[in-house]
Amino acid sequence: MKVAIVGATGLVGGVLLKVLSERDFPISELILVASPRSVGKKIRYQSKEYTIQSIEAAIEAKPNIAIFSAGGGTSGKYARQFTEVGTTVIDNSSFWRMDKQVPLVVPEVNGSVLTKDDLLIANPNCSTMQMMLPLKVLHDAFGIKRLVISTYQSFTGTGVKAVQQYEAEKTGNTLSVEECAYPHPIFANCLPHCGDFDDSAYTTEEIKLVNETRKILADDSIAVTATCVRVPVFGGHSESINIEFRNEFDIKKVIQLLEGSSGIVVQDDWKKNAYPTPLQAYDKDEVFVGRIRRDKSIKNGLNIWVVSDNLRKGAATNTVQIAEYLLEHQLING
């Protein structure tokens, strides 16, 4: 199995290599790709050094799988060039997610939509992805009518530049405006500003939650509204989700369904202060769910708290799980 990682030197790229190694993904040849300024540099993977190659060289190598984590511009320009040589591309950027011809996949939720003809597969946004696991099982059981989502997203989701800004502010160093990822300090602060604002006054992260949720759950009737907040947390993203169901539900049944779902860990014992936190979720692949309680202000209302490591299940792990699903079901060419 010949595998290319496009964006190998980035924050998610590093986690991708770690996850591939941990899960012992079968690789006969590894092709590492980064920006032109990184070509020729070395990266170590499983005690072996690999030289960073150009993306053109990677296309010529015709890998079985190419995992993209290099931004939407790179994905938009090069993803189809890989598929044209028979490579299956799993893309982490937002570029292809809402393309009607491109499946948007969380394997535990909708892996069954994948076929051998799908040479381009999109990875959902990290904040969308983690909530899909609990929402899918609850939607199937009770029918989701409306979602009100408030996110508390780690600055690591913005990338290396945000990490550098946080570290500089933490140590009291001053950066130029050009060196900063955010228009305000992120250390000891919260910014209700994830992504870019559009003309509706919503941000791109909030719009992704609306559109991607409907696509993955295959239900455009679900009403979704969101406010996304960037927080000075390293371990992962947290979400407060208010759900209005179409049908009546029982709290015990909700917990039973969540506890029986693959990839979910329920931590919900308020008497013992047991609930998920980013520190607990850090460097783990599961989605953690707690604070499960009825919303008494509306009929058929439920509140849940969802936490996951945004660089693992929110990005790297899900792409590897997609690749594993493709292998298991013999959907890879070559």
Give structural notes.
The chain has ten helices and 13 strands. The protein is of the alpha/beta class. The protein folds into two domains: 2-123 and 315-328, Rossmann fold (3-Layer(aba) Sandwich); 127-310, 2-Layer Sandwich (Dihydrodipicolinate Reductase, domain 2), CATH 3.30.360.10. The strands form three sheets. It has a six-stranded mixed beta sheet. Strands 2-1-5-6-7 form a five-stranded parallel beta sheet, sandwiched between helices. The longest helix has 17 residues, at 126-142. It is globular.
Question: Key terms for this structure?
Answer:
five-stranded parallel β-sheet, Rossmann fold, 334 residues, 13 strands, single chain, 2 domains, Dihydrodipicolinate Reductase, domain 2, six-stranded mixed β-sheet, alpha/beta
